[in-house]
Specification:
The protein is mostly helical. The protein is built from 14 helices and four strands. The chain has helices at residues 41-48, 64-67, 82-95, 102-107, 129-138, 151-164, 176-183, 186-189, 194-202, 215-220, 222-233, 261-270, 272-281, 297-320, and strands at 31-33, 118-120, 143-148, 210-214.
């Protein structure tokens, strides 16, 4: 059974619902950061929130498109002026509705004025095609960014956070079978295939409006990653984000479960095909992910070539019938 959040039906006035668009300068989000969870989205919010070219919502994760804002919050919302208060009141009104109201969701961002604003909710990585298509059609100028992370490292970080926050029952982190059982949790599994997430969003977002960035670059050169993201979203990378430095990351020192060599190898086997898919489809830093675990990307490309030859053979064979 396919599940989808309901949308409000419109009265037919001779125009399709997808023609009700926001254009540049209207009250609407300029961008979505759709994940991945545990891949640097908090860092992105921390860099954008004090930047003079941006007005960011008073909460990092709005969760409107995936849970109608009924998600539990672990951090109190910012409330420094009337705009913050109005935004939170608008979110409350929207959460009282049983359908996704994209027009009033867009109105939340009226407080940005001439600044850039957006919604950073990693859970959007798991949105289905119907919702993605509707959102992109309603906001045709919307930019979308995705931060990808090695699936093994990302999943382990999510499991560690889940145990730390009490969202996942504590388990024996040295037992590979126990770890795999937790990886099969739908909340973990749905966010552990970046190649599928990127492919799904790319089906609807124009290429010039979509970018993939890598957690690897946040670790190696956060200043350059900050520059690229700000430039793409329409901000000036040369302006400082208050007193915050690019290398400042409040989540970097969070405690994690100890990952043993045995469990790491078992997790790598679990994600082998995804690691190879990321290398071939995402490129960039992902090209090195399989080799971290001793997997040959060359063999994977040979397999793809074999599949291609098979399809060609079948096609030619059909032509001779």
């Amino acid at each position: 059974m396919r599940l989808a959040w309901p949308f409000k039906s419109r009265i037919d006035n001779g125009h399709s619902e997808e023609e009700h668009h926001c254009s540049t300068g209207d009250a609407c989000p300029d961008f979505l950061c759709v994940g991945a969870q545990k891949a640097g989205t908090s860092w992105v919010y921390q860099q954008l929130e004090p930047h003079p070219d941006f007005w960011m919502p008073p909460v990092k994760e709005l969760h409107y498109l995936d849970t109608l804002n009924r998600a539990k919050r672990f951090h109190p919302p910012r409330s420094r002026d009337r705009c913050d208060v109005c935004f939170l009141e608008g979110m409350k009104d929207l959460s009282d509705q049983s359908y996704i109201d994209l027009e009033n969701y867009g109105q939340l961002f009226r407080h940005k004025g001439e600044l850039v604003s957006g919604d950073i909710s990693p859970a959007y990585s798991a949105l289905n095609d119907e919702i993605i298509e509707r959102v992109v059609n309603h906001f045709p100028n919307l930019k979308v960014i995705f931060l990808a992370r090695d699936p093994v490292e990302r999943a382990w970080s999510q499991l560690s956070m889940g145990v730390r926050l009490g969202m996942i029952s504590r388990f024996d982190a040295t037992d590979a079978d126990e770890v795999i059982r937790n990886l099969l949790n739908p909340g973990v599994l749905a966010r552990s295939h970046p190649s599928k997430t990127v492919a799904r969003w790319k089906r609807y977002v124009r290429p010039e409006h979509f970018r993939v960035y890598f957690f690897d670059d946040l670790e190696k050169n956060p200043a350059e990653l900050r520059r690229k993201i700000l430039h793409f979203l329409g901000g000036d990378p040369n302006k400082p984000s208050g007193h915050l430095k690019p290398e400042d990351n409040n989540d970097a020192g969070r405690e994690k479960l100890r990952l043993t060599t045995k469990v790491r190898a078992r997790m790598a086997q679990f994600f082998e095909q995804e690691l190879k898919a990321c290398a071939s489809q995402l490129g960039g830093a992902a090209k090195n992910w399989p080799t971290r675990y001793g997997f040959s990307v060359v063999c994977f490309f040979w397999q793809l070539a074999d599949y291609f030859d098979l399809f060609v053979w079948l096609d030619l064979d059909c032509m001779t019938l």
